[in-house]
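@channel sequence for tomorrow's demo:
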Amino acid sequence: MSKKMNLRVLTLNIWLDPRDREKRDSLLLEGLRTFDADIVFLQEVVRTSERDAFKLVSGNSPLHWHHASDYTQAGWPAWGTAVGTRWAPKSIDVHRLPAEDGPYVWEAVLPLPIGVDMLFLGARPSFKFTREAARVEQALFITELEEKRRQAAPTILAGDFDAAPDQDCIRFYTGKSAINGRSAAFRDSWAIAGDGTPGYTWTTDSPWVARSVVDAQGIVPNYWVQEPHHRRIDYVFAGSTENHLEVESVINSSKVVFNEYPTASDHYGVLTEFEFNALDKPTAWA
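structure tokens (generated this afternoon):
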């Protein structure tokens, strides 16, 4: 059995909006085939009679797929999140995050081909600008869950966090601030292995996002759009090396993808490639 492997992780909010859905669905499937990720985490996965996005991706992918509907506000279509994994999970579950708008976090334990298990967490926290306090509370929940369920290989945490790197919840995830006497230390793959640009994933540079402003004629609440609007809010994080001494891990690359118009979504995605090396014994300084 090889002790080394590469792991590709993709996160993308695929957008519940119905506009140009046939073209966008084609672009989505084309991207999923091209990037060939081992773990795919999708948000705003609509399941309606007009568009069943989960059926679309699960029926056109070799991955093991699971879906959960987690947004229940009246007047909105049924939508949720979906996770696809190269290897059948040993266990998989969803946990309701502390908030009134019903977001979930996925928890999946995956057996890797190098003989160790890995915890994947897929998160979709509260999305409104005004909900940062909720996102902080959710970050505490997610990091506590990670501590309880952590495996030998570094935990991967991914999703649409609706928060920029300088906001409290992201600063907490990445070890730059403590909350309620607690701290965490996830590695932000883009900050480590991106191309040096801001890496915006939701921006009015995208015609889809810019069009949201025009379509609403100025009545869109500002928790969605401020123009000009440029933020990096989609992430792939990795657990700290200190907490995973039995598996060496390197973030080889992190790319913003689905970012050339026409695109599959109003969000851009993040594709990160890791290199794992399972050790015969923990690192010497353990």
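heads up for whoever presents: The mean pLDDT is 90.
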